[in-house]
Amino acid sequence: MVARRGRLSGASADSFGGYRARLVEALRAKGIRNLAVLKAFAETPRHLFVPAAVRHRAYEDAALPIGNGQTVSQPFTQARYLELLRLRGKEKVLEIGTGSGYQTALLGTLAGQVFTVERVRSLAEAARQALLEAGVRNVSVLVGDGTLGWSAYAPYDAILVAAGGPDVPPPLLQQLADGGQLLIPLGARGSQTLTLVRRVGAEFRQLPVAEARFVPLIGEHGFDA
Fold first, then answer.
1. Tens digits of per-residue pLDDT, 193-214?
2. Quick count: other Cβ atoms within 10 Å of Cβ 102?
3. 73 part of the active site
4. Which of 73, 122, 140, 191 is catalytic?
5. Residue ranges per domain, the chain?
6. Which residues contact 213 (CB under 8 A, 6 or more apart)?
7. pLDDT tens digits for 74-116?
């Protein structure tokens, strides 16, 4: 686990600022309107979160491979996720599927604290290093089964799942705060429906948002490896 306080710092001091600005304009052109989300993309150095072999493509609005059969999602997809959560800056957020750590860094600029779980140790370690280089200080990383959540720091104001599962893992519902929101792709391998779950007391209300295609959610309450 790594835990650091504070937020993104020094990211705009690199030579990629112009590329980030063009990415922000591309997101705006596709309908992203939340100013905080656009600002997060403008400030977060995506090139630190992709392998050197594809770094020249870091600011394309495209998914990119990061190894172990995983990808860093298309920025537009991530921007839509983040808009739906409507974070105000003080929330405690759980992310399932750290991947490269890029979405984690975006969350770090939008929320108060971020706790993220990654089942692949090599990805988690690479993400820790990238987050350190990016100056992200309010993120904690755990290697483990994301379908079990991270109960030690529950409840969470928002939970973001970056993989598609057959159902919402019960531990994640238990760890969601009253009034909180959980965003997860639900369905079969390779084809899901992005679903927003809102907790109202003991009730969980599901709202289908859009068709989606994510890597499978592997774990005790997901798919088998």
1. 999 999 999 999 999 999 988 8
2. 27
3. yes
4. 73
5. 11-212
6. 164, 185, 190, 191, 192
7. 999 999 999 999 999 999 999 999 999 999 999 999 999 999 9
Query: The tokens of 186 are what?
Result: 């639900």
Q: Among residues 216, 205, 209, 213, which one has the least CA distance to residue 194?
A: 209
Contact predicate 114/139, CB 8 Å: yes
Q: Which stretch of DSSP H or E encloses residue 23?
A: helix 17-29
3-state secondary structure of 172: helix
CA 85 from centre of chain: 11
User: What CA–CA distance (Å, rounded) separates 215 from 191?
Assistant: 9
Residue 117 CA to residue 178 CA, distance in Å, equals: 22
Length of the chain (residues): 225
The encoded tokens of residue 29 equal 């052109």
169-196 burial by CB neighbour count: b if 16+ within 10 A, else e?
bebbeebbeeebbbbbbbbeeeebebbb
From the options 3.40.50.740, 3.40.50.150, 2.60.40.1520, 3.40.190.10, give the CATH code of 11-212.
3.40.50.150
> Token pair for residue 225?
């490896």
Please, what is the angle between helix 35-43 and helix 17-29, to 10°? Answer: 150
